[in-house]
Amino acid sequence: MSLRYVARRLSNQKILVSSNPRNAVRTLNVPCQQQCRSVASTANAERVLFPGSLNSKFTNTLEFLRPATQEAIPTFRVMNQYGEVLDKEMGVDTTDEEALSYYQSMVLLSVMDLIMFEAQRQGRLSFYMVSAGEEAIAIGSASALSPSDVLFCQYRETGVYLQRGFTLDQFMNQLFANKKDLGVGRNMPVHYGSADLNIHTISSPLATQIPHAAGAAYALKLQNMQQPDASPRIAVCYFGEGAASEGDFHGALNIAATRQVPAIFICRNNGFAISTPTSDQYRGDGIASRGAGYGIETLRVDGNDIFAVRKATKEARRIALEDGGKPVLIEMMAYRVGHHSTSDDSYAYRQRVEVEDWKRRDNPITRLRKWLEGRGIWDEDKERKLRSRARKEVLAAFDKAEKIEKPAIRHAFEDVYEELTEEQKSHINELRDILERYPNEYDTTQYEGGVESLARLPEKKV
């Protein structure tokens, strides 16, 4: 095959072929994946041209890549654990008023976690999960996103909802599964969702939200192309490092990379997946190292530094919208101070002194407070008033939500099919018969409409 023939075939790929046979094919701004699809390797080629390879140089040295000898991926931070900004020129990219509002939200989240954890221990709540040690990741990242961006959370992103405008009443209504719960009692506590805030409802199965986010990002990519006058949107997905051990993680990142979708994948690496420490989860360099393997732009961030979280998320969003869209992976490093959930006793698999050391030595709330104090805009008196006010607000919402009756029983059958199936109708009749025959065993007075709500089920969804 002549060089001129190759040049003609590849002219639409912007590949230039030298007239000198000794020179390898050189490219002009074309990804190697595209170059290599139809170009055979020549005898004296210096780089790999196989369809499945990257633009790799040939070598006659037999040397395996040994990850243990490589330097770990660095962790980006803006301020140290003493609240001191490391690069004065770069600064924090946040006004004092904004930083103060983020701090107040982090404290409110912390206070709510403490109260609701105790409420579960008192038997007033069936389940709860705290965000202790990870407040800056949720609130910091959410503050850097557009309200129109579509979010997919796991179950430790309460701060994301709080930052987006989810109210204390909405939190409590969902936790108590009363009739004002947006999900009308169909989900377990801490599984929030809000169509108004563009946040998909949290799902219990691990990592299922990651491929959902990749698919949504592809839809947003098409939408951004079809509506050039509208503000572009991206999908953002939150998950823990334990979820990154699931197949859904790998499938999602691969499709996101090959489809080049506008998405940010935020991994909260807090050191433990339920009762499994990271030392038992993976051997490689955290989760960030996997991003490079999928050809995704990647960054590792100090999750205890809310300024670093904000800067990283803001820049990631800019990158995600470049050239029509591309995925970004951010690994946020943290330490899970609390138990995995109210169903877990973390002291069974880690030392209490280790947890207390992290609480005392470094955590996101303390670090931001030190920065605020250094600026002269915070002190002990303001701290005390803030925590007192936050506690009163949480308890007021708690007391109100706990007294509201449960959703109507009919909601258990609605919104499954457009029309009630014959099987559903038989289930409804059977349930109603049991409830009416055994009123002492089944108290339906706490549910809106009681057993009679089953008689008001529509035949067809309006």
TrEMBL record:
GO function terms (MF aspect): branched-chain 2-oxo acid dehydrogenase activity; metal ion binding
Main location: mitochondrion
Entry-linked Pfam families: E1_dh
Entry's localization field: Mitochondrion matrix
Cofactor: thiamine diphosphate
CDD domains: TPP_E1_PDC_ADC_BCADC
Lineage: superkingdom: Eukaryota
Record has Phosphoprotein as a keyword: no
Domain Dehydrogenase E1 component, first and last residues per copy: 104-408
Swiss-Prot/TrEMBL keywords: Metal-binding, Mitochondrion, Oxidoreductase, Potassium, Thiamine pyrophosphate, Transit peptide
Reaction catalysed by this enzyme: N(6)-[(R)-lipoyl]-L-lysyl-[protein] + 3-methyl-2-oxobutanoate + H(+) = N(6)-[(R)-S(8)-2-methylpropanoyldihydrolipoyl]-L-lysyl-[protein] + CO2
EC assignment: 1.2.4.4
A single GO BP: branched-chain amino acid catabolic process
Keyword Glycoprotein assigned: no
Cellular component, GO annotation: mitochondrial matrix
UniProt family annotation: Belongs to the BCKDHA family.
Function: The branched-chain alpha-keto dehydrogenase complex catalyzes the overall conversion of alpha-keto acids to acyl-CoA and CO(2). It contains multiple copies of three enzymatic components: branched-chain alpha-keto acid decarboxylase (E1), lipoamide acyltransferase (E2) and lipoamide dehydrogenase (E3).
Protein name, as recorded: 2-oxoisovalerate dehydrogenase subunit alpha
